[in-house]
Amino acid sequence: MVPHWPASMGMRELSGLLEAKTVGDYRASIEWNRAGEDFADNRYSRGHIWRFDGGIDVPASSSPQVVPPPMSIEAAVDPEEAFVASLASCHMLWFLSLAQKEGFIVDHYSDDAIGTLAMNAHRKMAMTEVTLRPRVSFVGSRQADNSELIALHHQAHEHCYIANSVTTRIRCEPLDAAGEPLDYSTGVQQ
Description:
Layout: H1 11-20, E1 28-31, E2 48-52, E3 57-60, H2 79-101, E4 105-111, E5 114-119, E6 125-132, E7 134-139, H3 146-159, E8 169-172, E9 188-189
Parallel strand pairs: 6-8
Antiparallel strand pairs: 1-2, 2-3, 4-7, 5-6, 8-9
Helix pairs in contact: 2-3
């Protein structure tokens, strides 16, 4: 079940709803088949399919940086990329919602997010840091200045369900409409 909130519902009401109960369950199915390959030699394909409730099938594989081709499929999405994309997507969706509530009209939003796979403090491989590099442009009479942009990104980070669910350090380094870094000395970091 995916909840649908009325457009008039404010952040305070939404936060109250989220505190009151479980919002929903989210499902993903994966499927991998050996396809007759030798499994014992560890040279089998890591290619598999992710299936989501909307009916989309996504080709997936291990990262070619972790398992070299041809055992991994470079054209497929790997779990590390999906992790970075889910953080960037959640941040963007909250940013858009918050900007709309503040009366801004967002015309374009892009993000070239980067995740770092490294050894964590527990000596385990982990996505230790994700850096978001959102670039937003607005139309209309109300244009966000740098301080408003920074505040919106900070709020988006605070609300992002995915960011709130992980221990990965998340940095947000917004760019202005020309692609130049904002003066962001306070930063949004987890």
